[in-house]
């Protein structure tokens, strides 16, 4: 049995268990939800276990409270198979009046989500588990702490050991725990490829019980991969899909497939950031398209590490998805959210990390090189000058997040931080 590798989410889960009666862990398949839950549970119910599934389903209809009995915290894995668990757990938490009673894990959102989830207020906490960041997989030195940058950006010192070839492999491998633990590169890359196959063949239809066409799912995910990091509309994605041939579809079909992919956590778009600005500037409010992990994009496009090296434009988009994933993992650990900014003049900031206390940092993502770093720094300083600091805090830091580069440093001419992703941690 392979040794468990602690994750940032372990600390978050423990904190939530100490404050709430139950915690729901959500996220894509194979990202480690069950393993995480097991580390903190004293008893486990596996709802998808084929040896016991039928009897558990029958019992859930007649005496669901029996399934809740066991040492606490009790893990109920793939709870969404029986959505009634939500009310049953909520009622049991009310009855017991104690924290840390249940951990629920699921790879999809059940039907009637709003109706079910609103009843959990005050009793349930949510934890979104993502694939592993580079710090968690051991690929980042962790010399630069995101939390530390919000306290002071005066002195930064970090070394990056990830070269371009390694970065391409990490993007294609993704943060899937089994791939991270694999000793062989080929086997590690296969994880993402098989995940993609499972999504288009089965999971996209199981998301809500609606049968969907495998080929349309493939074409849509390829289009999404080509449009990652953009605010592409459903109409734009439809045009891209139709250009690749195949049976005709309409925008409603595109919306349906995208919604299903979100329900199984394959897609995680980035919401728009709306700051107070010195002058009236129309801010684009469309979400920015991202997959939950960069390897989903490379698998959808059929690309490997060498392909990325030979197509730096595509590599740049995939790298941006990798950085957004890592920033989300790190930001959640410090109670932050990652947004995207773009205005009518196309001034764009790839990531805005906004904390609950009102502090925020502006981040431009560039794979590396002098010209791209200069471009990123100009964007950051341009946006920071637009912000009305009489109505909101000035940014805690301006950072160009790079893929390659030996060291992290602060530019003396404008104070912009240049930080390789291989130096960063929460």
Would you mind describing this structure in some detail?
The chain has 426 residues and is α/β, with parallel strands linked by helices. The protein folds into two domains: 8-128, Rossmann fold, CATH 3.40.50.300; 144-425, no CATH class. It contains 17 helices and 14 strands. β9 (348-355) and β10 (360-366) form a beta hairpin. α14 packs antiparallel against α16. The chain is globular and about 70 Å long. It starts with 7 loop residues before the first helix and ends with a strand. The model has no long low-confidence stretch (mean pLDDT 93).
Q: Report the span from N to C terminus.
A: 28 Å
Indicate the mean pLDDT.
93
How many distinct helices? 17
Q: Strand count, sense and closure of the main sheet?
A: 7 strands, mixed
According to DSSP, the number of beta strands is: 14
Sheet/helix structural class? alpha/beta
Can you tell me the residue ranges where pLDDT is under 50 for at least 5 consecutive residues?
none
Radius of gyration: 22 Å
> What is the percentage of strand-forming residues?
15-25%
In spatial order, strands of the major sheet run 7-12-13-11-10-9-8
Helix content: 40-55%
Using the alpha-carbon principal axes, give the shape: globular
